[in-house]
Amino acid sequence: CHTSGMLTPNGKEYAQKIPREELTHLILKLLQAWKEPLSHFNQHIEHHQELPDDSLSKAKQISNMVHELKTGVEKVTEKMQSMGIISNSLNGMASSEGTGLSISNEANMMSDSDFIHCFRRDSNKVQSYLKILKCRIMPENSC
């Protein structure tokens, strides 16, 4: 996976120990790391005439959802900063330069099944980190 070099907590108990700011940054880094590979994946599968239109639209829908999620996390981050929950040190860190990853051809050369496996793995991480972050920000949700 092209994000394997990214340091992420191994397990929920370790993720819960990460400060809110770092967890938020990690979520943004993971989402940004998938922007370009998803775009290449969409271009790749568009050239497969044997794929049904349904599969093509699903792939585009996933890319759009990742983009919307990243935008949403950025808005939540801004709100958290304005409320003083986290500092302003995350500004500009959601850009590709801020991820610390150079997207190599590794993500583009993976088989479709490997690509989907890696995407699912990182999607699960993002989902877990968002749940942890939500529980820290709004403990009244009885997490």
TrEMBL record:
Entry's Gene Ontology BP terms: positive regulation of receptor signaling pathway via JAK-STAT; response to nutrient levels
Compartments where found: Secreted
Coiled-coil segments on the chain, per record: none
Classification via InterPro entries: 4_helix_cytokine-like_core, Somatotropin/Prolactin, Somatotropin_CS
GO MF annotation terms: hormone activity
Gene3D superfamilies named in the record: 1.20.1250.10
Protein name per Swiss-Prot or TrEMBL: PRL protein
Species this protein is from: Neopipo cinnamomea
Gene behind this protein: Prl_1
